[in-house]
Every structure is written in structure tokens, then in C-alpha cells.
Amino acid sequence: MSYQPPVREHLFLLRDVLQIEKYANLPGFADAPLDLVEQILTEAAKFSAEVLAPLNSVGDKIGCTWNADGSVTTAPGFKEAYKQFVEGGWPALGADPQYGGQGLPAVIAMASSEMSSSANMSFSMYPGLTHGAYTAIHHGGSDAQKQLYLPKLASGQWGGTMNLTEPQCGTDLGLIRTKATPAADGSYRVTGQKIWISSGEHDLAENIIHLVLARIEGAPAGTRGISLFIVPKFLPDAEGKPGQRNSVHCLGLEEKMGIHGSATCVMSHEEAVGWLVGEENRGLALMFVMMNEERLGVGMQGLAQGEAAYQAAAQFAKERLQGRSLTGPKNPDGPADPILVHPDVRRMLMDAKAVLEAGRAFLFWTALHGDLAQSDPDDGVRQKGEDYMALLTPVLKAFFTERGFQIASDAMQVHGGSGFTEHFPASQYLRDSRITMIYEGTNGVQALDLVGRKLPANGGRAVSAFMAEIDAWVDANGGDAALRPFADGLALVRGQLQEATMWLMQNGFSNPDNAIAGSADYLRLFGLTGLAYMWALIAKAASARIAGGDADPFYANKLVVGRYFLERVLPDAGAALAKVKAGAATMMALPAEAF
Amino acid sequence: MSYQPPVREHLFLLRDVLQIEKYANLPGFADAPLDLVEQILTEAAKFSAEVLAPLNSVGDKIGCTWNADGSVTTAPGFKEAYKQFVEGGWPALGADPQYGGQGLPAVIAMASSEMSSSANMSFSMYPGLTHGAYTAIHHGGSDAQKQLYLPKLASGQWGGTMNLTEPQCGTDLGLIRTKATPAADGSYRVTGQKIWISSGEHDLAENIIHLVLARIEGAPAGTRGISLFIVPKFLPDAEGKPGQRNSVHCLGLEEKMGIHGSATCVMSHEEAVGWLVGEENRGLALMFVMMNEERLGVGMQGLAQGEAAYQAAAQFAKERLQGRSLTGPKNPDGPADPILVHPDVRRMLMDAKAVLEAGRAFLFWTALHGDLAQSDPDDGVRQKGEDYMALLTPVLKAFFTERGFQIASDAMQVHGGSGFTEHFPASQYLRDSRITMIYEGTNGVQALDLVGRKLPANGGRAVSAFMAEIDAWVDANGGDAALRPFADGLALVRGQLQEATMWLMQNGFSNPDNAIAGSADYLRLFGLTGLAYMWALIAKAASARIAGGDADPFYANKLVVGRYFLERVLPDAGAALAKVKAGAATMMALPAEAF
After folding, report:
1. Contact yes or no for A256 and B586 at CB 8 A
2. Which residues of B touch A517 (CB under 8 A)?
3. Is B440 noted as a catalytic residue in this protein?
4. Per-residue pLDDT tens digits for B274-333
5. Local structure of residue A49 (DSSP, 8 states)
6. Quick check: A336 and B567 CB within 8 A?
7. For chain A, N or C: smaller number of CB within 10 Å?
8. Vertex A309: Cα angle to A305 and A315 (nearest 5)
9. Tens-digit pLDDT profile for residues B379-407
10. Do B560 and A165 touch (CB under 8 A)?
């Protein structure tokens, strides 16, 4: 049995936990009543399970091929699947109806993208990058640019990329050297080499729209002199169709540990024709609009790989017969018991469930706040939505990519020796998931963003609102006997988060290294707090179902996994707090030559 | 700069921390004064760095080739390197002088094997398995078998393997189906298929001696009906030279995520000629002699991969220029600072050092106890040595393979996007190290062995001795101001280990699942306790040097890394204790269909 999309989980979250029907007054939600959402997600699940999942291993084993003419051929089956993907309207799910999109809330689009990412991460990166390019142009492009590019990007007819990295310049974008020279017609000529460009060249779409960071001649040094350009593979002709071939070419593909199905390209721009997006020297801010969306998506990729890996491990654990339960045989007629009877195998699977089920809730909950930030009529709700999106994007990106990789590693462990062979899917999940901790800003960069920028923004307004919301939940629900353990666990970790936040504020002023030294552990503590809050919301929703007489074990099982989270995942929060408070002194004490 | 063998670390441990000169009265040690040990390790370092390390990537990229005639060709350069390895006498370092070995203490041989494993894990597996076969025959073989096989195995002229796993039988060796039928001449005919046989077939040695688990016809079912056989690839002729080809053949190689340079074979025994080792139906006990040695070696492999990965990351962090220190530029004339200035990069490198430096001490310290168990004239010392070896083998195997993989993953993270490409060594370290958590008994099996067998053995004698030794150290050294933080940290974690041990004893009786549910976390807590003890010993040795006027920063740096361990690694112990005490109830509560 291969990947089974968790539509049941999605519907429970949307209906019972997030209660999206409350937002039927808002655009997007108005057109997506729950029965329609169920239809859409069921179709998306079918496509992911039947079309995308079978190609996952093909992409890994065959990968992409760079041809001598600079073209790139994707793995067998990818082109046909992409055609179906576009024809099914899947890329347009969350896009603006003004440009041909379906205008569904981001939280619904996220549920769909989880499934395609679990089924085939490499495949899903092509539309993922396209949607990022769509977002940047939607946010910063001229009307003409929007009219020309957005419908093609929204539909997936054209692909998109982000051209940031250069050999000397990864995280530190101030070091960009790619140059842009103004031409007489208002366009630019872009010259420079870009590396690690996902979807930089491929055979899936009829055109590829590169969004390229470059310096206009004479621009200030550093990050304040960087502009954003549209550089299409084929220059659109007068009718908006792919015309003349532009001088942007793929020089080769990167050899990587995973995501072999995704074309990671070295791109050379040689006086390529490009058009400025937004203002001169303001490119980085625009790129971050795109990047922030991608970061949330990468957090979901991490979770999605964890989910797929967990499913493979759970299946293996139910089928593989080896040893006997210590409490007496559970499969007495067979040669041995399924390894699911062994507590240490259970432990790994329960660890996964405890993070995946609440992690999905945390991602959806944040995406819903993003939807509210766009369209809620209440100023306060919109502001809170924006604050939460800004605050939580680095948390979700880093926490779920780290946990997704950990789950993939545990899933391999459940497989034993089989997991290390390439005959089982565990290796691919482990190898593919590892990149999510690195790209779109390493997890260290996320932690720096959280502690250095997002926490102090607006006098700490976002984190204060988040803690106040938790306090209100604890006050309102702590008296309910069924919810008491969840309220207690949540109050405990919220107190630890508060203590860590205060420590960073008090000690980061005197020495900024103090704040960053603990940033990764602070981010973990934040992630655990978010999970504890989500388990509280899930427990409340499940308890309400049970109290209402619903005997489906789905709900009782949620309470079990939630308790497991409290008992066996949440204790890590105390260790994270202690590490935050250790500060930078010892960490930074060794001279460079001691490494 | 590639792998630099840490001979300085080795000598500090042997001389200052373990003070091996105290044992000059014992065989082995008597012939290995420190200046000779330094010469040996310096030569081993040279061989590892100059011959083995350059072949590591070759082994990964080209791997082994299975030929249509059933032969296996190792990666280019491996055969020549193996010849040099044998000619240099390296395989014989720790072997019995009676059979051509050099008889050095195991702790010295371990230092040498760390270096070959760091330099080229796949290569080092060939002699590693050979030494395991040597140990099994040395322990259980007849005199004739010893005379025939041991000198050839000790020298590395012949290779060795362990043939355990079958498709239906991994951890649960009771399910073995391979059959052995007695022949008229006292030999047996062995028939069955074995999988995942490391070094099962290759072109390095002129003969390969398989140690094969099989059932003699009519033997009892389960683990009590398994016997151990010698099945040589070529039957030794009257002169002990490789004679007639035996009917044991390699049917193919496993496709794996890593250790591509190691030949992982499917082996088919078709009425192959074999000879019983030891008694009928007592094969498993003998195989465990071999397995236990391998397990200690695998713990060292985990650490060795962590060390190599750490070194690559440290080098990258000193060379890669990106961003600026938050406390002011450290490389003001360059375009950016080396990323080592960023606290989150430091964190990952310091995490590695805190585990590697004390981890090596813990492995050496245990190996030294193994040496004392063999040869100390004092009954009590020998017994304690045996107790510690038995108790700590599963701890060292699981803890350092888990940590080694974590360090390899952090090392990739330090590299950023470069780490995910195959142009840097980070990917190979990550992929290679992952198998160490699985083979020679998964880490879950180690935790089960620790909690289910090793803890309760002899009424808990081993763990009581370990804790008493720690108490004595704390009592003797806690009054020293320089050592106080180390004594305090050690006393704290030792108390947590005691509490966890008591909990397991009290709650494991009523329900054995309670003990196993916490076994992995208990093992982590044990590992952290061991590291805390080793940091205490290291701090004492370094402080003594400093007090004696030695101004080499090596010693002061040790105290910094030790403090970092106390501040930022040891806090995980509290979380591990909480998880142990959570028990099995919630973990085991879900029905199988909920997974």
C-alpha cells in the first residue's frame, strides 16, 4: 500500500478544529462550503495517490537529464502528469480569480499542496516555485506585467523560478554580482551566473519566467542596491505567446543527495532581456514576499515528507513479523508478531503522530490567519493575522523541516536494514526531506529571523498576542476535566516560552550574540508551544464530538495521541529553555584555530 | 584540507586521562610504552589520511560491481590500499601473538580503527568483519580450526564475514531456515540464502571465511537450534592454502543509501561445505561473542563518521565568507566574515565537539576495561571490566551511532546548500553514518539489551559499580574549585540515572512494556551520564596540566568545551528522565488500525 492522503485529518481540522464555516462571510470561504471542500480535497487526494505518488521513485532513480543543447528532460511520466495537473486546474486553486485563479482560501490550497508534496516532493516543486513567482509579480508587478504573466503562471501553463544564489553568495544576498544594464526601450540586459536554481530549465511548461536578483549599474553596495527582474526563457510576443528565445541558459544540473526529480540548475544570464519589477534597488523586499510564501510551503514540505515516511513505516510495522510481544504473543498462529507490538517501534510511530497531527493543525491555523489578514473586515483581526504570519513563518519552516527529517529518519529505523536499501521508500524520504532544512533560508537563518526581527517587531506585539490567546484558552478551558491535562501542559510550556523570551530581551541588548546563541532552541521551544496549543484545540474538538455521542474511535484516538504528546514530546521544552539561558559566553569562547 | 587524524586527542586520552602507563605490568601494555604508541598511531594516521581518505569518495561514487560470474570488484584503488594495509600489519594490531598478531591492547587498536573508519568507513568494514570472524573462531573454534584460520584472518590475508540475516529473519534469529546436513567426514553441507552480508564477496583477499548460522537437521525450533559454521569460499587444501571453490556464491549486491564502497551481498549456500564451530545448537552464543565486538566497533564507527563530518564542517565554516558578525566585522578587509563567527554555526560545531571529545574518551575507557577484563591479575578488576563491557556495549553502540548521525546532519547544515550537493563530503558522511544506527542490532535492540538483560544481570552489579565509581569521583573532586561544575553536573545526571533505573525496576516487573517503552530514552540518559563522567575526567587531567604550568591552549580549550557540554548538552538528561517515567500505557493504547 503506497501513500494514502489524509483527507479525513484535513476535514476534521477544517470543520471541527478551525471551524472554517465561521468565515463564510469572507471572499474565498463564501465559495467553499465544507461539502465542496471535501469534493476538492478528495479529487486532489485521488490525483496525488494515483498519478503523482507512482512517479516519486521514478523521479528519484532516473532524475533529470541535461542535454547538450542546454535543455533539461524531466523523469519519464513527469511531463504527462504535469499536463494533467494543469488541466485539472490544480495550480490555480489559491490564485486570484482576476487572473484566472479559483480564489480558494490559502488554508484549502495548503491541504491540497500537502498531498502533492507527500506524494512526490520533486514534482510538486515545479508548481511551487511557479506560485512563488506568481506571488512576487502579483505583489510588485505593474498592471501590464500582471496581465501578461499572472494568468499563465496561475494556470501553470508557464513555470516560474527564483534566481537568487550565486557561487559567492548564498544567505548573504548583499554579495550579489549579477548585473543589469538599462536598455533604450526601458528593458534591461541581465548578466551573471546563478546556481541552485530549482526548475531553472525543464520540459514541463511552454515557457519559464525567471525572477532574478541583480544590481543595476551604479547601485549602492550591499542589500540596498539589489533589484528584481523578470527574465523569461522565451520573450512574450505581441500576443503574449512565447516568442524569441532569451539568452538565459542552463549550463548543467547539480548532483544532489535527494530530490533528484527536481531540476536544480546552474543558470547563465548573458545579456538576457529582463524587465524591472517594482522599484529600483527594492528587489530584496519583493523577493522576500515570494520567499515568505515559499518558507511556509517548505514547512509544509517537511511535514509532508514526514507524513509519507510515517505511513510507509506504519505499514511496514504492521506487516513485518519479527519477535514476540513481551506481554504474550499477539499473532500466535504466525511465526512471529508484527513489529508494531514492540514498544520501541511504537515509540517512533507515536512520536511521529504526535508531531504530524498537531503540526498539520499549526500550519493550517497559520494559513487561516493569512487568509484573515487578507480579507477579514475587522482591522484588529487583519493585523493579528499579519502579525502571526510574520512571527510564525520562520517557526513553521524550521520546526517542521527539522521534525520532518527526524520522522523520516525514525521511519527508516522502523524498517531496520530494509530501510537502508533502495528497495523501500524510506531512503528517498530521508534524502529528499533533508534539503528542506537548508533551502529558502537555512533553519539557522529562520531562527535569526525569529529572534532578531520577528520577536522585537512592533514592540513584541505578535508574540504578546500569541501568549494572550493561549492564556485565554487556558482560562476558558482549564476547568473542564477532560481538557485539564492539555491546559496544564499548555500553561507550562507557555510559561517556559515567556521565560525564554524575557531572557533573550534582557540579555540580547548587552550582547546580540546572546540572543542568537539560543535562537535555534528558542525556535524549538516556540514550535513545541504551538504544538501544545494545537493539541489543546484538537482535544477540545474531539471531546466535543465524543460528548455529542459520536462513537467513531477517530476522536478518542486523538485524545490518546495528544496525551502522548504531553508525556513524551513536551518534556523537551524544559531542555530548550535551559539551553536558551546558557547564552553565548561559552559558545563563543574558543579561538577559530581550536576548530 | 581533508580528514586530519586526531592523534593529539588520542595521546591526551591515553596518557593524561586513562593514564595507561599505570598498566605497564600487564601483557600488551608492557610492550606498548607511550612513545611506541605515539609512533604506531602516527603511522596509522599517515596511512589513513594519505591512502584511505582519498579513496572514500571513489568508493561512494563508483561503489562495488557485481560481475556475471558472481565475483565482485571493489572500487578502483581499494585492492591496492588493502594490500598496503595488510603489508603494514594493521589488521593484526590487536590480535593474539600466538596466531601472528601484535597483541596490542584493544584500546590502542581502537584508536587506530577510529582513524581508518573516519578516513574510509566502507574500506574499514572489510578488516572489521574479518576481525569479528577471527574473534568467533578464537573464542569457540577447535585447536585445529584456530591453527588453520586465525593466522590468515589476523594478518588480513583472508577475509571474514558474518552470515546471519535471511529475508524472513533479521532481529529475530530464531526464524533462521538455512540448513546444515552432516556429512560422513564430520563436515556439513550448508544450504540457504543469506542477505545483507557485508564483505560477502570481493577481490581484496585470496579467501573469504564465512561464519554462518544454520540449523542442523532435527535441531529444536527457535534460537536453541542454531549452530555456527565455518564456510570458506575456497576450501583450504592440505597445506592450508585456498583449494577447491566451495558452493557459496554471491547472487548480487544490495542497492543502498550509503557505504557504497562496502560490498553488501546476497549469498547463496548450495550444499556448501562447512565445519561446525563449538557445540551443536550453541551457535547463537558464539555469534554474540563476535557481535558484541562488532557492536563496540560500530559505536566507534558512528563517532568516527561524526568526527570526519565535523572536521569538514569546521573547515568549511572557517573558509566560507558570508554575512557579518553581530558584534562587529571580524574580517573587515574581506567581503564578509567567515561563517564561524555566527553563533548558530558555532552551536553546531560546539555540540559536535562536546560529544566527540568525551565520546572518544568513553569508548577508549570502556575498551580499556575490556583489556583489564582479559589480563588484570586482580579478580575484582577483571570482573568489573567484564561487567562494564557487557553493560556499556549497547550504550556505546546506540548512543554514538545516533549522535554520529546527528553530527553528520549538523555538519551538512553548516555547509548550507553546498552540503546537499555531492561536490562536498557532507552528503556521504550523512548517508554512510546512517547504517550504523541499524546494523549489528538496531538501536532499539541495543536499548532492549541494556534494559532487559544488562541492567538486571547479577542483581544490577554492573550499574551499581558504575554509579559507585561516579560517587567516589564526585566525593574526591567536588571540593576542587576548578572541578566543582563538573562534579555538580555529574552528580545531577547520576541522580537522574538512578531515578530512571529505580523507576524501570519498580514498573518493569508489573508490565515489561513499561521498561521497554522508556528503553531508548534510558539509554540516552546513560550515554549522557557517561559523557558527563568523561568530561569530569578530562577536566581533571587538563586542570592538572594547567596547574603544572603547561600553557598549551589545548588544555584550557578542553575546559571550555566541557563547560559547553554542561550548559548545552546535559540539559537533555532531564527530558530523557521524564520520558522514561511516562511508561507504556499511552504509548501502547492505540489499536493497530489507528496507525
Report:
1. no
2. 343-344, 346-347
3. yes
4. 999 999 999 999 988 888 889 999 999 999 999 999 999 999 999 999 999 999 999 999
5. I
6. no
7. N
8. 150
9. 999 999 999 999 999 999 999 999 999 99
10. no
Place of cell 504474550: A328
pLDDT of B567 reads 98
pLDDT tens-digit readout, B146-201: 999 999 999 999 999 999 999 999 999 999 999 999 999 999 999 999 999 999 99
Contact B437 A413 (CB under 8 A): yes
Give A-chain residues touching B406 at CB under 8 angstroms: none
Q: Do A170 and B439 touch (CB under 8 A)?
A: no
Say how far residue B174 (Cα) sits from the centre of its chain.
25
How close B129 comes to chain A (CA, Å)? 17
Give me the pLDDT at residue B293, please.
Answer: 84
At A580 the pLDDT is 98
Residue A327 and residue B514: Cα distance in Å, rounded?
10
Q: Cα-flanking dihedrals φ and ψ of residue A195, to 5°? A: -120, 165
Measured between beta carbons, which residues in chain B are less than 8 angstroms from residue A165? Answer: 417
* DSSP per-residue letters across A369-406: HHHHHHH-S-HHHHHHHHHHHHHHHHHHHHHHHHHHHH
State the smallest CA–CA distance between residue B444 and chain A in angstroms.
Answer: 6
* Stated pTM of the model: 0.98
For B95, what's the count of Cα atoms within 13 Å in the CB-facing half-sphere? 29
Higher pLDDT, A290 or B493: B493
High-pLDDT (> 70) share of chain B, %: 100
What pLDDT, on a 0 to 100 scale, did the predictor assign at position A124? Answer: 98
The C-alpha of A364 sits at a distance from chain B's nearest C-alpha, in angstroms, of 22
A461 phi and psi angles, rounded to 5 deg: -60, -40
| Inter-chain residue contact A595 with B254, CB threshold 8 Å | no
Beta-carbon separation of B582 and A567 below 8 A:
yes
Please tell me which residue of chain B has the smallest CA distance to A595: B314
Q: How confident is the model at residue B1 (pLDDT cuts 50, 70, 90)?
A: low
Please give the Cα distance from B11 to B293 (Å, whole number). 23
Which three cell numbers mark B570?
546535559
| Residue that is written with C-alpha cell 493575522 in the block | A385
Q: Which residue of B has its CA nearest to A425?
A: B257
3-state secondary structure B475-503: HHHCCCCCCHHHHHHHHHHHHHHHHHHHH
Give SS3 for B509. coil
- Per DSSP, B256 falls in state B
Spans in chain A with pLDDT lower than 70: 1
Nearest to B204 by CA among B109, B76, B95: B76
For B528-552, what is the mean pLDDT?
Answer: 98
Q: What is the distance between the alpha carbons of residues A255 and A261, in angstroms, rounded to a whole number?
A: 11
- Binary contact (B587, A258; C-beta < 8 A): no
User: What per-residue confidence (pLDDT) applies to A1?
Assistant: 59
Q: Which residue of A122, A260, A262, A326 is the best one to mutate when testing the B interface, meaning the one whose CB has the most B CBs within 10 A? A: A326
Long-range contacts of A492-495 (CB under 8 A, 24+ apart): A492/A570, A492/A573, A493/A525, A493/A528, A493/A529, A493/A532, A493/A570, A493/A573, A494/A467, A494/A470, A494/A529, A494/A532
Residue B250 backbone dihedrals phi, psi, to 5 degrees: -90, 120
* Residue of chain B whose alpha carbon sits nearest to that of A223: B323
What's the mean per-residue pLDDT of chain B?
A: 97
pLDDT of residue A290: 83
Q: How far is B438 from chain A (nearest CA, A)?
A: 6
> What is the distance in angstroms between the Cα of B339 and the nearest Cα belonging to chain A?
10
Binned at pLDDT 50, 70 and 90, residue B509 comes out as confident
Q: Which of A173, A175, A257 to mutate to test the interface with B (most CBs of B within 10 A)?
A: A257
